[in-house]
Every structure is written in C-alpha cells, then in structure tokens.
Design goal:
single chain; about 650 residues; alpha/beta; about 25% helix
Length: about 650
C-alpha cells in the first residue's frame, strides 16, 4: 500500500514539473511575441499655434503647404507662441514647403520679436509675448520621452475640428496622455516677460463666395462669367484663422498686439485696383482679398511700410491714403468695405492721378521712403499707360504692373496699347511686372510681390543722387587748353559720367564746348545708355579759340537746360582754365534763379573769384580748383560726394 502511494506521489510531482517547465516556456514565447509600443509622431495642421499645445517639448509632423501667408508667424529664430508651429519651421529653414518632422521646445517669453522675410515666409514683429518656442530637426534626443499624442489647452483639439470626438480642456488631456506642467527654458540673452490677462477676439468664419451676375460689358472688353470655372480658391479663406482661440493664449497685453511695422520694408505703397465693370463682383472680391493678404504679409506700421488704395474705372478715386490706417488689421477692415466703381479700365488716367495727388505730405508721404505704385489690371487697360507711367517714374515712383488674365491671341486686336506693361515699368527684366493666368491663381503671387516691393536696393526707379538729374557739361575749348590737356578734360568728364545711372528715365548727360563761340556737342535726348554717352564724349573734337564763359552759360541755358525735364534736377558742371573775356555775373545769376545747380571747376590760370561767382551758393561746396590738368581726376570723388550730399539734404519727392 505504501509503495502505491509513493508511486502516485511521484507521478504527481512529475506532472507538476512538466507543467512548470511548459509554463515557463510558454511565458518566454509570449514575451518574445510582445513588442514595446512604437513611438508615433503626432501630426498637426499648418494653422496649429504653439500656444495651443501644453507639452513643453514635442516632436510633430507638419503637412505640405505651410508656407502660405494665412499661417501667421511672429519673430525670427525665437518665435512667439501665437505663431503657427509649422509656419515657423518653414521660416527658420528647418522645413521646406513639403513638410516633415520637427522638434519644438517651449522657451521664455521675449520683450520683443523682430519680423523678417526668410525661406518664402514673412514673419511679423511683436512688442512682447508671454511664451516663445524654438524649432529644430525632428530627431529625438537621448533620454527624452516624447508624447505620441499631444495635450491641448482648449476644449477642441485640431482632431476635433476635423470631425473627431476627442475632448480636452485646460485641466484634462487628450485620452491616453497625461497633462504636463509647462516648464519654460530661458534663452541666453533674452528677457522673460510676465503675463497680463485680457481676452483675444475670436476670428470670424470665412464668408462664402457667390457667383457674379450677368452684366453689360464695355466695348472692346470680354464678357466673362465664372460659371463652370473650377472653384480652386475662395476669397476670405486665406488669412482667417479656422477654429478657436485657446485659453492658454488668453495672456497678453490687450488684443492681438499691434506691430510697429517691418523696418526692413519701409516704403510708401499705393495700390491701384481695377474696379471696371468687366471684372465682375466675384473677381473684385478676389482682388480685395489679395490686397488684404498683402497688407498682412507686409506687416504695416509707422516704422515700416504704409499702404493706401486708389480704385479706378472711368475715373480714379482714393479709397484711403497712406496715413489713414497704420496697421495691417485696420487696413484689412478698410479693404473689406471697398465697393466696386464700375465703368471702363482707365489705368493710365489712374497713374496720372496717383503721380499728381497721392504721394503728397498731406496724404502721409514720408519723403525718406521709396514711393511704390502697384497697378492691377484685369485683361488690358482701355486707355494708354506709357506716357503716364513715364511721368510717374520720372517723379520717383516705382511702377509695378500685375496683369490678370491677359489678352489671348484672338483678343489682342482689342488692346489699345500692345505690350503695355513693358512700356509702363522701369525695367523690362520681369522684376516690375507679374502676369497671372487666372484670378484663382492671384493669391499665389502675394509672397513674390511683397519680396519685390520690399527689396529697396532694387527699386531702380526711386530717385537717388545718381539717377535723377540732367547734367550739362560746359567745356572750355580755348587755345590755352591745348590738344593734350583737352583730352584730359574729356577723360575727367567721362569719369564723372561713369558714376551716374544713365538712361532716358534716369540721369541724362549733355555737353557743349565754348571759345568765343559755342557748340552743342550732344543734348540730353541723344544718348540713353552709359556706353553711348562715353562714346560720344570720346568723339568730341578740340575747337581752340578765346574764352567767353558768360556767353557759354547763356548758351547752355538755352540749348541744353531749356530741354531738361521738369522733374529732373538740373546740374551744370563748367570746366575752364582761365578768366573769361566777358561778364559771368549776370548769366550765373540767371542760371541760379532758373534752378540750375552750377559746379565750377578751375584749372591752372582760372580766377578763383570768378569760379565763386559762377558756382551755386555756398561756393565752398560748388567751386573747385587744381593747379594742373593731370590732377583733375582727384576731384571726381569730391564732386560726386557733394552732389549726393546736397541731394540727400532735400525732400525725396
């Protein structure tokens, strides 16, 4: 009996051991099958602002298309948390417009944020904000755990906006996450800003777009309806924030901070918008939305760009001038209220109106800022623009043309002035003109236009000391000069001429030679390029004779400066080597009264007292003397400097 019991106990033990081994083996197999959860990078939309996300550090994936100006960015390198996360990533260069992963780290608020244009994104300036962030490549750092699901500070997350049922508020997080305290890092060399509390206005939803109704068309213009055209873009959809203003962002000084403007784009800008009947109501709304987008991207303010609008149809009218609205938000509100005038598309008349009336001190023109006029044309103008544009350019206005839906081959027969845009602008290199195939693509040109009008170094039509004068050289060809020295004088004239920007709309050069008699070598209208002018100077032949400087000044006034353009500065540069045989006092006084700024260059036996009479007051800035002809070249830098100093001391327009 005892043997049987022992046998049973042994069997039980064996079974237990088998089960134990089997269990351990099964557990090992199960362990092999269980994998650690993989980190999933959360995706966000372009419009998500850093302030909406509670997490102090996170990696996210941005979609393509975040370069669009509707996604506002504030600051450079360090961004205010009111900025679009993905827009800031594109601005900083971490991403391009195709999207990708980025690492975001919250940092302390700054006392100021400087706007800039970088990588196709125009960031705006802010005086202060309570929280900031920086972006870098989306590579996880060792020892840091990043959330797979973000914690939002609002009752609606971006996922909820897309139709999901995820709920979150300031005290509860998205399911599967734990709310984390916001720990802000201090950026070296920056000032942390305390918070005050007010409420930001909730953005209004985008207004729907309706088709335009049938309307009579002016003669020579197209009847074009939008029925059947693809609705690729709707007015009102570009700059409006979709969604909400999260509680985390309700800490600021007042409403959304008003910028002082981008100091890197200090221009006085006039938009000439097409209000003709042919454009229709829907296209007119698209045009207004384009203006609003430009106003937003420009970062308008007293220290930066100022913007006014003129609408034209049969006749032009100012909608508001440069000083009416001094921030982008007020501008956008004013633009929305503009109503269409109707009539023809008389762009030439509008350009003349702007030249004569718009850029005045009473309308807010600042004098020290370049004047820029952007002309928008639907199809083609119904009047001529070349002469009006030339006068505008000669008044120092930089003319830009945006032509939308230009004439097809069949329609060109109706165009009053073929190739009108190239005839209107300052340079035909494509910088000053934009052609847009259809109105639905107009919003894509916002960044291109802003970049160009803000590139003040390339605004060649702006008045400068080197591109805004008619310069007449009055050259002494008397016997005392001699052939060799005369060639040295011509080289001096050429060296001075080289310093200027020469064309029919910039600086123009003329020259005359005198002895007892006078001879016009070439007038202002004869040579319109620097190469042609230099070649003409080289061909001037030595005359030889006496020295009648007074008669030469009278001749210059009649034969050279009488044909000077009214908007040009008139500069006379007289070069002589001796005392005049006739009186110079009366002719010089007449020249000064006619507004001719006279520089007197004396060589060798020239009389100092006579030079001072000829020269414009003060004589110390306008009269020069050298002992020998070979030293003339030394005067070139000083003469140019004095010309520019005098120019810069005067009002720009």
């Amino acid at each position: 009996m005892g043997i049987v019991v022992l046998t049973m106990k042994a069997s039980v033990i064996e079974v237990f051991l088998v089960l134990l081994v089997t269990g351990i083996h099964s557990n090992k197999e199960m362990t092999k099958k269980i994998k650690r959860p993989k980190f999933t990078v959360p995706q966000i939309n372009c419009d998500v602002k850093a302030g909406k996300i509670i997490n102090p550090e996170f990696i996210v994936k941005c979609p393509a298309g975040c370069q669009d100006p509707r996604y506002h960015v504030y600051g450079t390198d360090v961004y205010a948390s009111y900025s679009s996360v993905c827009g800031a990533a594109v601005h900083s260069g971490v991403l391009d417009n195709s999207g990708g992963k980025i690492l975001v780290q919250k940092v302390a608020g700054q006392s100021s944020y400087k706007g800039s244009y970088s990588n196709g994104v125009r960031s705006l300036s802010l005086p202060r904000w309570r929280e900031s962030f920086v972006v870098s490549e989306g590579k996880p750092q060792k020892g840091v755990t990043y959330p797979s699901t973000l914690t939002y500070s609002s009752s609606k997350s971006p996922a909820a906006k897309a139709g999901e049922t995820t709920k979150a508020d300031h005290s509860s997080s998205v399911p599967g996450t734990t709310a984390q305290p916001v720990t802000l890092m201090q950026v070296p060399g920056t000032t942390m800003v305390g918070a005050t509390h007010t409420t930001l206005p909730k953005p209004s939803p985008s207004a729907g777009s309706t088709s335009s109704s049938l309307r009579p068309q002016p003669v020579g213009q197209r009847s074009r309806e939008l029925a059947g055209e693809p609705d690729l873009w709707k007015p009102g959809s570009v700059l409006l924030d979709a969604g909400f203003v999260p509680k985390e962002e309700l800490s600021t000084q007042s409403l959304e901070p008003v910028s002082q403007g981008d100091p890197n784009c200090k221009i006085d800008l006039s938009f000439l918008i097409d209000g003709s009947s042919s454009i229709g109501k829907r296209r007119f709304r698209i045009q207004k939305q384009f203006l609003a987008d430009v106003a937003q991207v420009l970062d308008v303010g007293p220290a930066g760009p100022l913007m006014g609008v003129v609408q034209y149809g049969d006749n032009p009218a100012t909608q508001f001038n440069l000083k009416t609205h001094t921030n982008s938000q007020d501008l956008k509100t004013a633009i929305e209220k503009i109503t269409q005038r109707g009539g023809l598309s008389n762009a030439g008349r509008a350009i003349s109106f702007v030249t004569k009336n718009f850029f005045s001190k009473s309308n807010g023109n600042r004098g020290g800022a370049p004047n820029v006029a952007v002309v928008m044309v639907d199809g083609w103008p119904t009047d001529k623009v070349e002469e009006a544009s030339r006068f505008a350019r000669e008044s120092g206005i930089n003319i830009f043309f945006i032509t939308i839906e230009g004439a097809t081959e069949n329609e060109k027969q109706y165009v009053l002035e073929p190739n009108f845009a190239n005839k209107a602008v300052c340079r035909t290199n494509g910088f000053y003109s934009l052609n847009v195939q259809n109105w639905f693509g107009l919003h894509k040109t916002v960044q291109h236009l802003v970049k160009r009008v803000c590139d003040v170094d390339r605004l060649a039509c702006s008045k400068t000391c080197l591109n805004s004068a008619d310069i007449g050289f009055v050259i002494d060809g008397s016997s005392s000069v001699g052939t060799s020295n005369f060639r040295t004088v011509l080289q001096f004239v050429a060296n001075l001429s080289k310093e200027f920007e020469i064309s029919d709309t910039d600086t123009r050069i003329g020259a005359m030679q005198y002895t007892y008699e006078q001879r016009l070598e070439f007038g202002f209208e004869e040579h319109s390029s620097k190469a042609d002018v230099l070649n003409a100077i080289k061909k001037v032949g030595y005359w030889s004779g006496g020295t009648s400087t007074g008669a030469a000044i009278n001749y210059a006034l009649e034969q050279l400066f009488k044909k000077s353009k009214p908007n040009k500065r008139k500069l006379m540069i007289l070069i002589t080597d001796g005392r005049s045989y006739d009186d110079v006092r009366i002719p010089s006084t007449v020249a000064h009264h006619k507004g001719v700024i006279t520089y007197a260059i004396g060589v060798a036996w020239a009389a100092q007292d006579e030079l001072e009479v000829i020269a414009t007051h003060p004589a110390r800035d306008h009269a020069f003397f050298v002992d020998e002809f070979d030293y003339l070249y030394k005067l070139v830098p000083q003469v140019i400097q004095n010309i520019c100093t005098e120019f810069n001391s005067q009002p720009r327009n």
